[in-house]
Design a protein that fits this description.
It contains 15 helices and 21 strands. By secondary structure, the chain is of the alpha/beta class. α9 packs across α12 and α13 packs parallel to α14.
Length: 472
């Protein structure tokens, strides 16, 4: 790309903002919120949570949302993605809706609108009510029905206040964490059960889209997917085949049914080969086909690099997609040692081009992008975190995103992860992502240097770009 200094202007009405979730930011509050799978995980594995911090308080957004919305304005937000807690609305997952929860969210969403911050409402962000988890979670079709009832209630109660809706954030996450890699509850390793969870999640999303259509709202409904462009180690045919399999399992598995209404043929054939086809009906497939999303959120953090396997698969080990490929570490990569992720800005461009060329250039936005750094106290000067690295990270990614828009990609906005330092799954507050620093002892909020940059970025609807920042 051209690195000569110039002002990169973004389209009018571009969405500048950030994102987080109810479980990571609200705290328990006083509405009688039910327990979630994270309370269950805390009960069973408290030692897994960094420094023993659970979700009781987190960033206390429940009690501080009015002042925090002022901080949104002070950091340039014209939009913000939150999630609505299923366990707050329905403490047992179903039954009677909690009136106090409805009142809380109406006040919150109304305040955002009044202050000129468009609410993007996500309906599931890794926070299943305990009562639903005890029924088997997404493995159980009754839980799918309960989720759709929750969604329908939200459309009815908040449809006049929400700018855009999203059925799920990163539905791949619970499959990876809960059924493959042992970092989310229920912490089992069983890919066949994971495939059922994935299918039922996709079906739940389509059923929520169908319910949404009945309300004829002005808003749109979509899904937010974490997508990592997949790169083979080399042009060797076997490396390329390995990359194709990785892409099918980790990108196309949710992307295709959500946008196209169908599943990739080669993925289905591979699942059949290993007796992994989920239980489903023809009507399920019809629902998925007829209720695709209207807008797409793209979470991009890192690329996926793979190569052909260099060792034989143990046929007596649990099946995993990695039977078809191995991860590859590219020499000389930029790397965030705190989070363990490669920093590859061109990936955000390649991702957008893929959506343009292969998914009808559906309306989309970058729904998460961010850099988590531990011990940011090291960078405090005169009471403020001087996070030049985060500003450089944002500029680098926006430069490639700007080029994607110039090249015809239908990208409407950029949401950073995250607004105020928030609680993160298992890692709790180890790595900080926010534009605003949080003091856990006092709950004091302090705008970081990146927050000041973000305000100027939003006001100018662009920024001066003089080449890639590389001092990570």
């Amino acid at each position: 790309m051209n690195n000569s200094a110039k002002f990169l202007a973004f389209p009018n009405d571009f969405w500048w903002g950030s994102a987080w979730s109810a479980e990571q930011a609200e705290g328990r509050g006083n509405t009688g919120k039910g327990r979630t799978q994270w309370d269950m995980s805390w009960d069973k594995y408290p030692n897994r949570f960094y420094r023993g911090i659970n979700t009781d308080v987190t960033t206390d957004f429940f009690n501080r949302y009015r002042e925090d919305i002022q901080l949104m304005k002070a950091t340039g937000h014209n939009s913000f993605r939150l999630s609505i807690s299923w366990a707050r609305m329905f403490p047992q997952g179903d039954g009677e809706v909690c009136a106090e929860a409805v009142a809380f969210y109406r006040d919150l969403l109304g305040e955002m609108n009044q202050q000129g911050v468009k609410p993007f409402a996500n309906l599931y962000h890794f926070d299943m009510p305990e009562a639903m988890m005890l029924k088997g979670g997404w493995e159980n079709r009754d839980v799918v029905d309960a989720y759709v009832n929750f969604c329908d209630t939200c459309f009815r109660e908040f449809g006049d206040l929400v700018y855009h809706w999203f059925t799920f954030n990163e539905p791949l996450g619970p499959v990876l964490g809960g059924y493959m890699e042992d970092f989310h509850y229920p912490n089992v390793v069983d890919f066949k059960r994971g495939v059922q969870v994935a299918f039922n999640t996709i079906l739940a999303s389509a059923m929520a889209v169908r319910a949404f259509k009945a309300y004829s709202l002005d808003s749109k409904i979509g899904i937010i997917l974490n997508l990592s462009p997949t790169y083979p180690r080399s042009e060797n045919l076997l490396d390329c085949e390995a990359a194709e399999y990785a892409d099918l399992f980790y990108n196309r598995s949710f992307l295709d049914p959500s946008v196209k209404g169908t599943f990739p043929t080669k993925l289905v054939e591979t699942l059949k080969k290993h007796d992994l086809i989920p239980t489903h009906t023809a009507e399920d497939l019809n629902i998925i086909s007829e209720n695709t999303v209207q807008i797409l959120g793209l979470n991009y953090y890192e690329p996926r690099r793979v190569k052909a396997r260099t060792s034989a698969v143990n046929p007596h080990s649990p099946f995993m997609p990695e039977w078809y490929f191995e991860s590859y570490v590219m020499p000389g990569r930029k790397f965030n040692p705190h989070r363990g992720w490669e920093i590859y800005e061109q990936g955000i461009y390649d991702l957008c081009i893929d959506i343009r060329d292969n998914y009808g250039n559906i309306e989309a936005f970058i729904s998460e992008s961010g850099m988590g750094v531990a011990n940011e106290e090291r960078f405090i000067q005169n009471g403020q975190v001087q996070d030049e690295y985060r500003i450089g990270f944002i500029k680098n990614h926006l430069a490639y995103l700007h080029q994607a828009i110039v090249d015809g990609c239908n990208i409407k906005g950029y949401h950073l992860w995250t607004f105020i330092d928030c609680w993160s799954w298992i890692n709790t507050y180890k790595n900080r992502y926010g534009l605003v620093a949080l003091d856990l002892d006092t709950q004091q909020r302090t705008i970081k240097k990146s927050g000041e940059f973000y305000k100027l970025l939003s006001e100018r609807n662009g920024f001066e770009f003089d080449g890639l920042y590389n001092d990570f």
